[in-house]
Design a protein that fits this description.
With about 550 residues, the protein is of the alpha/beta class. It contains 15 helices and twelve strands. The protein has two domains: about 300 residues, ABC transporter type 1, transmembrane domain (ABC transporter transmembrane region fold), CATH 1.20.1560.10; about 210 residues, Rossmann fold (3-Layer(aba) Sandwich), CATH 3.40.50.300. Helix content is about 65%, strand content about 10%. The radius of gyration is 34 Å and the shape is elongated. The N and C termini lie far apart (about 70 Å). The structure holds adenosine-5'-triphosphate (ATP). Pfam families: ABC_membrane, ABC_tran. Keywords: ATP-binding, Membrane, Nucleotide-binding, Transmembrane, Transmembrane helix. It is found in: Cell membrane.
């Protein structure tokens, strides 16, 4: 049902066409059985000729409507998946950073990959399910036409079958949902495998401990829940088949004892039941896939809801203040909530002012709150208290997107794009080439049709490429989070003594998070943090 609602949301018109034609196709297939059954029982040449024409006509209708239904549903299903992927990605990008950090990468990845795949697998089945359901309905209608009493009997048996399967199905679904819970943990383990490869390879005992204490138990729990859940589905399927065989046997052997049935009616039943067997079996066999999809849709929905609750307003930013006057933070705070009260970390309240052409160093010990402050200043974190003003304009949810466009930042965990996405300056390639030379990367990296020839470089070189992108962005305020930490002494010197100065001369405000104390004298101002509080904010020299 959830799957149908999911498809309905994409296009109810297409779904109506698909279900309508699927139904006609199923009914036509069932009618073919009725015609075969009639043709077998009525031997006259005239009726056979009529039956042959009827058979050909209905077979044609069944074929055409089946093709139309499947084609429409394939398009609809793929359209729905396409929209789901885009919507999820947009929702993630449109959600508050703190919320995303709270959810964690494994949860997001599990939904973006596994849950979407589970829905895709089920959606692929929908065209066949529709036709199978319609065939079953058509066959039931034919049985009803043959005898209402037998129809009632079949319906009763179906109610018994469904009723007895319900418990098994519910329990099976619950187990599959538990298996799905393990998947988030599995993704976290897989991240350890891919991102911690070096550390795990270098330390045999750590690797064994990780495999035995983390990965193996999680994968084991996933296996156990999946095996138990799928077993219940298999039992359900076999139980369903048994009830069905019972129905066929009952009609064939027991029914003639209670009521007078002509031989051709009996053969009509047997033919119909035998024909019903295939779609019924397919419907039952696909239950685990449908169940998984329903669990995945619940997960997607809950992620979507939680993302929607922390969604930020997205607006097309216009009129960036390249000639701005002042940025100020007034009583701004941010708090990370740990598991216990002691593990909370609060930054602020912070008051500070920033002007164009200022080179400000943010310093302090590890964990003192420098990166947190940088994210607050750049508008990535929304202050829990206090206000940010740019040229007297208070930053609110309405203009935060606009405000962020004033910053170019390289964080310690930066992401390097291999193309200059969204940078639309004239002479982009020539400028980029010049910066490549200035950053001493022209011998390593070439520009090929607006793309960097490689990003597989050393960490220091990758940071230089990130700096190149930041230069090309040409934003009014620059933010470097321990950018120089990976640079060799020569380039580090160049960065502090030349590159920062050149940016300042261009009127940029530059915030530099640094532990390189022998370059602190180059700053115009130093802000020192200690345990989330500003210890001092004073001009240098
Ligand atoms: N995503 C997070 N969730 C919870 N707590 C966090 C998170 N990021 C940082 N913290 C906590 O906030 C505090 C400040 O972290 P922050 O990264 O701002 O420090 P920093 O001064 O930049 O440190 P470093 O010099 O080591 O980079 C730390 O004590 C840390 O425990």
């Amino acid at each position: 049902m959830q799957l149908i609602v999911f498809l309905l949301r994409s296009s109810w018109g297409m779904l109506a066409i698909a279900i309508g034609t699927g139904f006609v196709s199923g009914i036509s297939s069932a009618s073919l059985i009725a015609i075969i059954s009639l043709a077998v029982s009525q031997g006259s040449a005239e009726s056979l000729r009529l039956a042959a024409w009827g058979f050909a006509g209905i077979a044609f209708i069944a074929l055409i409507t089946s093709i139309i239904s499947q084609m429409t549903l394939i398009r609809l299903a793929q359209q729905a998946i396409f929209q789901l992927r885009l919507t999820l990605s947009q929702q993630i990008l449109g959600s508050e950073l703190t919320h995303l950090e709270g959810l964690g990468i494994p949860r997001l990845m599990a939904t973006l990959t596994d849950d979407v795949q589970a829905v895709t697998d089920a959606v692929r089945l929908v065209p066949f399910l529709c036709i199978d359901l319609a065939t079953v309905a058509g066959c039931l209608a034919y049985i009803n036409w043959l005898s209402f009493r037998v129809f009632v009997l079949v319906c009763l048996l179906t109610v018994v079958a469904l009723g007895s399967c319900r418990w098994l199905l519910r329990r099976g679904k619950r187990l599959l949902a538990k298996a799905r819970e393990q998947q988030d943990i599995l993704f976290a383990n897989f991240r350890t495998v891919t991102e911690g490869t070096k550390e795990l390879k270098l330390h045999y005992w750590r690797r064994q401990a990780f495999l035995q204490e983390d990965l193996q138990p999680t994968a084991g729990r996933f296996r156990r829940y999946s095996v138990d859940g799928l077993t219940l589905f298999a039992v359900t399927s076999s139980w369903g088949k048994l009830i069905f065989f019972f129905a066929v046997g009952f009609v064939l052997f027991a029914l003639p004892q209670f009521m007078q049935l002509p031989a051709e009616t009996l053969s009509g039943y047997v033919l119909t039941f035998t024909y019903l067997m295939l779609p019924m079996e397919r419907l039952v066999n696909q239950l685990p896939i449908l169940s998984r999809a329903s669990i995945a849709l619940e997960k997607i929905q809950s992620l979507g809801l939680s993302l929607a609750n922390s969604a930020e307003q997205v607006s097309v930013p216009t009129d960036i203040h390249y000639t701005w006057q002042a940025l100020s933070l007034q009583g701004v705070t941010h708090r990370y909530r740990g598991e216990s009260e002691d593990s909370h970390f609060t930054l602020g309240p912070v008051d500070l002012k920033l002007q164009p052409g200022e080179l400000v160093f943010i310093v302090g010990g590890n964990g003192s709150g420098k990166s947190t402050l940088a994210k607050l200043i750049a508008g990535l974190y929304i202050p829990e208290a206090g206000e940010i003003y740019l040229d007297g304009k208070r930053i609110t949810s309405e203009n935060r997107e606009w405000y962020r466009q004033h910053f170019s930042a390289i964080f310690a965990d930066f992401y390097l794009f291999d193309r200059f996405l969204g940078i639309d300056t004239p002479n982009l390639e020539a400028q980029a080439q010049a910066y490549l030379q200035q950053l001493r990367l022209d011998h390593k990296v070439r520009l090929e049709a607006g793309k960097l020839s490689t990003t597989a470089l050393s960490q220091g070189q990758r940071k230089r490429l990130a700096l190149l992108t930041a230069y090309l962005e040409d934003r009014p305020i620059y933010l470097f989070d321990e950018w120089a930490a990976d640079q060799d002494p020569v380039f580090k010197e160049l960065f502090y003594t030349e590159l920062l100065g050149k940016l300042r001369d261009r009127g940029k405000a530059i915030l530099v998070i640094s532990h390189d104390d022998h370059y602190f004298h180059l700053a115009d101002r130093i802000i020192k943090l200690d345990y989330g509080q500003v210890e001092y904010d004073k001009p240098q020299g």
